[in-house]
Design a protein that fits this description.
heterotrimer, A mainly alpha, B mainly alpha, C mainly alpha, A: mainly alpha, two-stranded antiparallel sheet, 20 helices, 2 strands, globular, C: mainly alpha, Helix Hairpins, 0% strand, elongated
Chain lengths: 495, 486, 122
């Protein structure tokens, strides 16, 4: 029994155990350090798992407590889970490296140990969702991460963070309970909770009303969690009023993991034949995704608070991922997975840059940011890079996602979808360019001109993430390679 | 140095130069020296590449694979060499001019200006040397984005509004029309490489190919085909060196060059002959020429008149290609060079007039030839070249355009070219006439423009003259384009 | 479709819809939370009720029996109940903080206070 065998569980257990330590130690600086070290440990574990997948190890199964599946809970690592786990743990490390000064400025001192503890819990929960091969276990980890995120969001400075967290709590619990109901229906008919086992037993039962209802409940529940239009109402407030670090982390990970869960249930558990060909989930998802992409990009243009603008933009981007999923061909799902990866990079960089602005200026309201490009050139440079990636300028990661998405649409011959993607990209140009104009082409208010950049501890993580956008726009072997391998698994059969 | 290394150097120089310029922002003298040295280095590199390409070689360089089956690769073919040579020749002149112009007008943000200028040229070189549609698209977008800060330079309300229109039209066309066209080509042909004879033969039926053709024609917004030409006049809010760059060297030429590349190497002249849509495109180009010239007649603002003249001249290139005769394709390629030299001279002159006399309208230019003799001589040379009089560059390209039209008995084309030549005369000759033969107006106590501006002016005017006399190299390059030899 | 045989499902449906309605309709945050709890309770009852095997003995080892009811749903629901308790706890602590900041736990009052604050800022 070597360390590498234990990697799947370590990725979850390390942050989980470190979390109460943060609170028990009592010192907020020590808490930060513990959190960072735990995140690094988890990242190392996830990197190890990714490497194993890259080397063609095939799906890895880890039985918790040595109880054999399908009765025991198992963790399954395949290409898709390894990729999403990488995103989650990498973002945790980046955000925590960034966190110290940002949290110091935005969160009350007595709450900071709690923040780090909750952040680690969210991390552990998300990692658990990604790795688990058991449906109920997924629900449990989902709730762990959700509860911790409600607490995280409430720590924002503005009192509206509290109501935002409460609204998210109500909607999130409804969604999770829907998932629970769905899992209950599946369990009732098949007698198993293991995803691989479910995948084998469900085809025979696909005509029963119970299974169909279960599918509906699970889909709606996950849709609520991934902020699919029109179930996205919790997201703008939650991302706007949360502390910058929390917005960055959640924007880059939470909805992605929910998309992962949707992919897992739709393709691995229920299978393409049932979910798409029989139940026509695509008929529901595709129009809603198209509307989301257009409507929410439009709404983003009229927002004065940049964090709120990015929040609406996030919902629109999730729409792209759902579009790829709904196209439901290997190319479409590849596009969805590639965008899942790239969007984490984009939004991570954008929110971290805004966090630096918040640190220096105290606000992310566009009215207060005239000329900030001269005062904080590096920060806004990173913002620009993330923004260009969001628009889909070639040589950035966003371009790759758009390329695959449009290719998938062309392959189906759906010209209207191409039109939707194109128009929404142009809408993204408008809201990003508003920021560019204000930052560089309007003069600073009197008395504030002169350099006042953010400190290095904030700039370094932001810039490395921004540069990652550039890197993965040029060398797509990791993102596209893993996505294509994942699609092979999703369409080929059981996880 | 081997050919691929020279190619890599040509691509690297503008971007490395931009970085160095940005870093040397606090030392204006060093920075300005660099602003002159880097273009000269690029010129030297491009000149060294010339002999091999003239001899038929096609140096190429593949940088990396971006997505499965799609690489970022460069390769030099005759048309690209022509464009790159034009850009490399004119960049030093534009740099010299812009240093003088920015100083004389006391513009701010000079470092940003020069750095973005360099990146734009890098984008243009990327477009010139692109070996496939993906690389072309990437360089094309780099060009759009790098020129935005140049257009918005003055940062007042007018400049921002103009810059918004500029970016809006160019990005809408490239993301909305060009990218789907490229993806469609990828889906249909399985490759995005530029190949002699094209890659689309036998892939889609003629109706669909016609739609694809129009997607490209309007998707390449930098070619300013009407009615998607609005960005050009809007971009006149930029400082004149930028207008000169946009109208002669980088942006418009990149547009019209990309369109030619697509017509010759993606569709292929033979395939175009079979498409009914080709006739429609011809008609649109013809309409664009005539309408733009007519609008130019009514503009009093000198830069706007020149802008509409450019829209008209760009469509000459498209017209030449769509006549689909070898000689006219030759003329189209030569017109890229001829128009570049002539227009840059005209814009330089307009900027010199603004700098020295603070005049922007044609009606104010009475008698200015005597106060600014060098400037107006150069202007006259540029204008006469646009009209197409020998012994100037414009004559050479019109000769071949008409020759091709005559050979293929394309009387419509000949008519269009003739009428537009008359229109060109109608809007240029009055300016020349006013400059030399009208009395000076009251506020004329100014002198010539600063020396660096005048030097650049004269250089480009000289090129305009020279092209007609020593035309062998451009002609040889143009003849090597597939479909371009008699 | 006999009513008596599906009695447990009817109970679940009624509770679920009642809870859902309370969550949506109520403006008072505490009552919303109660509705949420009701909603979750219905799911618990659902799971447990499907675990019952006809003529099965309670799943306790030791008593000799041939047929046991399914113990797995019980385990699952214990977990879900813990989740529910945690949710309620987080929700209630949020409500306490909201009350400190706004002076009220009625949604309408909070919304009005926010709109007022926005107008004052502008």
């Amino acid at each position: 029994m070597t360390l590498s065998d234990q990697l799947p569980i370590l990725a979850v257990v390390v942050p989980l155990l470190a979390s109460p330590l943060c609170v028990l130690i009592g010192n907020r600086h020590a808490a930060w350090l513990i959190a960072l070290l735990a995140a690094v440990g988890a990242f190392a574990a996830s990197a190890g798992l990714l490497l194993a997948q890259l080397q063609g190890a095939g799906p890895v199964s880890y039985a918790l407590g040595d109880w054999a599946p399908p009765i025991g809970i198992e963790f399954r690592v395949d290409h898709l889970s390894a990729l999403v786990l990488l995103i989650v743990s990498a973002m945790a490390v980046w955000v925590l490296a960034y966190a110290r000064r940002s949290v110091e400025a935005e969160v009350a001192q007595d709450k900071q140990t709690g923040l780090y503890a909750a952040l680690l819990l969210v991390h552990a929960g998300l990692a658990g969702i990604v790795l688990t091969g058991d449906a109920f276990n997924a629900f449990v980890f989902l709730e762990i991460s959700s509860l911790a995120s409600y607490a995280l969001i409430s720590m924002g400075r503005d009192r509206r963070a509290l109501t935002a967290a409460f609204q998210y709590l109500v909607m999130g619990t409804l969604g999770a309970t829907f998932i629970l109901i769905g899992i209950g229906f599946l369990y009732m008919m098949t007698g198993t909770l293991n995803m691989a086992d479910l995948a084998e037993r469900l085809p025979a039962l696909s005509d029963t009303r119970t299974i169909q209802a279960g599918f509906a409940f699970i889909s709606v529940g996950i849709a609520l969690k991934l902020a699919m239009f029109p179930l996205h109402l919790w997201l703008p407030n939650a991302y706007t009023y949360a502390p910058s670090v929390v917005s960055a982390f959640l924007a880059a990970t939470a909805t992605k993991v929910a998309v992962y869960l949707m992919l897992r249930f739709v393709f691995s558990v229920f299978g393409h034949d049932f979910a798409i060909a029989h139940m026509h989930l695509d008929y529901l998802l595709l129009p809603l995704a198209a509307i989301a992409v257009l409507l929410l990009s439009l709404v983003a243009i009229f927002q004065y608070d940049l964090k709120r603008m990015l929040a609406y933009s996030s919902v629109a981007q999730v729409g792209y991922m759902l579009m790829g999923l709904a196209i439901a061909t290997p190319l479409g799902v590849t596009a969805s997975i590639v965008h899942l990866f790239n969007h984490a990079l984009m939004k991570g960089a954008l929110f971290l840059a805004l966090g630096a602005v918040m640190w220096r200026v105290g606000s992310t309201h566009i009215g207060q940011l005239s000329g900030i490009g001269q005062r904080m050139p590096w920060t806004m440079g990173a913002f620009l890079l993330g923004g260009l990636s969001l628009i889909g300028v070639p040589l950035t990661a966003g371009f790759i996602s758009k390329w695959y998405l449009v290719s998938a649409a062309i392959a189906q011959g759906w010209w209207w979808l191409i039109l939707v993607i194109v128009i929404s990209s142009l809408l993204a140009v408008i809201y990003i360019w508003r920021v560019v104009e204000t930052a560089w082409f309007t003069p600073s208010p009197n008395g504030t001109a002169g350099r006042a950049e953010a400190p290095l501890s904030l700039l370094l993580p932001t810039w490395t993430l921004a540069l990652a956008n550039l890197y993965f726009g040029i060398d797509t072997s990791l993102s596209v390679g893993m996505a294509e391998a994942a699609v092979g698994g999703l369409f080929g059969g059981a996880p | 140095m081997s050919q691929p290394d020279l190619l890599a150097l040509a691509l690297l120089l503008p971007f490395a130069g931009a970085l160095l310029i940005a870093l040397l922002g606090r030392q204006p003298r060093l920075r300005d020296a660099l602003v002159l040295i880097v273009p000269l280095a690029l010129l030297a590199t491009v000149v060294q590449l010339l002999p091999a390409v003239l001899g038929g070689a096609q140096p190429s360089l593949t940088l990396l694979q971006v997505m499965p089956g799609l690489t970022l690769s460069f390769s030099i073919e005759p048309l690209g060499m022509l464009f790159a040579a034009v850009a490399a020749l004119l960049w030093p002149a534009a740099s010299l001019y812009s240093i003088g112009y920015l100083k004389a007008n006391r513009e701010k943000h000079q470092t940003r200006f020069h750095a973005c200028f360099a990146i734009s040229i890098g984008g243009a070189v990327g477009v010139a040397f692109a070996a496939n549609l993906l690389t072309l698209f990437i360089s094309y977008e780099v060009l759009t984005l790098a020129t935005y800060p140049l257009v918005a330079h003055k940062a007042d309300t007018k400049a921002l509004r103009g810059a918004r229109i500029y970016l809006g039209v160019l990005l809408s066309t490239s993301i909305g029309l060009l990218l789907p066209a490229i993806l469609w080509t990828w889906a249909a042909a399985g490759t995005l490489d530029f190949r002699p004879g094209g890659i689309l033969a036998g892939t889609l039926d003629n109706g669909l190919l016609g739609i694809l053709l129009f997607l490209y024609a309007y998707g390449i917004g930098k070619a300013a085909l009407m009615p998607l030409h609005r960005w050009l006049p809007a971009a006149m809010v930029a400082p004149t060196p930028v207008s000169a760059l946009l109208h002669a060297v980088a942006v418009v030429k990149a547009g019209v060059f990309s369109l030619l590349k697509v017509l010759v190497y993606v569709f292929g002249i033979d395939l175009l002959r079979e498409l009914p849509a080709s006739t429609w495109l011809f008609a649109l180009a013809a309409a664009s020429i005539l309408i733009a010239s007519t609008i130019a007649l009514r503009q009093d603002n000198l830069k706007r008149r020149l802008a509409y003249s450019t829209v008209s001249q760009l469509s000459y290139v498209l017209l030449g290609a769509m006549i689909l005769a070898p000689l006219s394709l030759l003329g189209a390629a030569l017109h890229i060079a001829a128009h570049a030299f002539g227009k840059i001279t005209l814009f330089f002159a307009a900027g010199a007039i603004y700098t020295a006399a603070h005049k922007t309208e044609v009606s104010q230019l009475g008698g200015i030839g005597y106060r600014m003799p060098w400037t107006m001589t150069a202007f006259s040379i540029g204008a006469l070249s646009m009209i197409g009089l020998p012994p100037l560059a414009g004559f050479l390209s019109k000769w071949y355009l008409l020759g091709g039209a005559w050979q293929s008995e394309h009387y419509a084309a000949m008519l269009v070219i003739t009428i537009s030549t008359l229109l060109n005369a109608a809007y240029f000759v009055p300016i020349i006439h006013a400059a030399w033969f009208k009395p000076a107006d009251a506020h004329s106590d100014h002198g010539e423009a600063p020396p660096s501006i005048v030097a650049a002016l004269l250089f480009t005017a000289l090129l305009t003259l020279l092209l007609c006399f020593s035309y062998e190299i451009p002609l040889q390059l143009a003849q090597a384009i597939p479909g371009g030899s008699p | 479709m006999e009513l008596p045989g599906l009695f447990n499902y009817w109970v679940v449906v009624v509770l679920m819809m009642a809870g859902f309605y309370v969550v949506i309709e109520q403006g008072n945050l505490v009552k919303k939370l109660i509705g949420l709890g009701l909603f979750q309770a219905s799911v618990f009852i659902f799971y447990i009720s499907i675990g019952k095997v006809a003529d099965g003995a309670p799943p306790i080892l030791g008593d000799a029996a041939e047929l046991y009811s399914n113990p797995l749903p019980h385990v699952l629901i214990l977990t879900a109940i813990v989740v529910g308790v945690a949710t309620t706890a987080v929700g209630l602590s949020l409500i306490v903080r909201i009350h400190e900041q706004y002076g009220s736990v009625e949604e309408d009052d909070i919304h009005r206070a926010d709109v007022q604050a926005d107008e004052d800022e502008a």
